[in-house]
Write a structure and sequence with these properties.
CATH superfamily: DhaL domain
Shape: globular
Bound molecules: adenosine-5'-diphosphate, magnesium ion
CATH architecture: Alpha Horseshoe
Distance between the termini: 16 Å
Mean pLDDT: 96
Length: 204
């Protein structure tokens, strides 16, 4: 028995609400080092995900995969395929989610998908700099249960997000700015923190 479709939908609907509330912030951050569309991109995609009817997906894995495909098809730019791949991979691994370690494996499958797709390394000033330390913290606390692990993950994700500020971007549009990308918080790391904070609120 794993976390069911309603649990997964609760997570993604909470994320959709967080994206909507923070859409202007995300777009403003992307204006500084990108093309001012991260908030509107993610809001469009997550609205479409929030409009999925969970009752049409008896298996949570299928709901999560549909969410991923929805993001790929509705969000332009780098973030659509990256978040889309994340949820496709999380969905694929979700089948066996029944305890803290297996949820950690599903989330890590999502990170692996992002790394394969975007080819970013730690320190490149991307959403990987938030998600990767979040999952390390999750693993370190998995023995204490899902709530403690997700709380630790959310905290580490926010710290990773903040730590993108001094970095020079080496991937994505921000990398075109070179040294001038330093001193700005990465938009994708900011939205990623909303995702892990939503998980901590809803999946605990
Ligand atoms: P675009 O840059 O195409 O306009 P968005 O503005 O929606 O797309 O998303 C920008 C965010 O995507 C960045 O802040 C960064 O976190 C993330 N990103 C960009 N390229 C990569 C990559 N190769 N790997 C991981 N994340 C990336
Ligand atoms: Mg952009």
């Amino acid at each position: 028995m794993g976390l069911d479709t309603l649990a997964a939908a609760g997570w993604l609907n909470d994320f959709a609400a967080g994206i909507h509330e923070n859409a202007d912030l995300l777009t403003d951050l992307d204006r500084e080092i990108g093309d001012a569309d991260h908030g509107s991109n993610m809001d469009r995609g997550m609205r479409a995900v929030a409009n999925l009817d969970p009752s049409g997906f008896p298996a949570a894995a299928d709901y999560l995969k549909k969410a991923g495909m929805t993001l790929v098809s509705t969000v332009g730019g780098a973030s659509g395929p990256l978040y889309g791949t994340f949820f496709l991979r999380v969905g694929t691994a979700w089948v066996n989610v029944c305890d803290a370690p297996s949820l950690g494996l599903a989330l890590r499958a999502g990170l692996e998908g992002i790394l394969q797709r975007g080819k970013a390394s730690l320190g490149d000033k991307t959403l990987v700099d938030a998600l990767s330390p979040a999952l390390d913290a999750y693993d370190a606390h998995a023995g204490e249960g899902v709530s403690a692990a997700l709380a630790a993950a959310a905290q580490a994700c926010a710290a990773g997000r903040d730590a993108t500020i001094p970095l020079v971007a080496r991937k994505g549009r921000a990398s075109y700015l070179g040294e001038r990308s330093a001193g700005h918080q990465d938009p994708g790391a900011t939205s990623m923190t909303l995702l892990i904070e939503a998980a901590s609120r809803t999946l605990s």
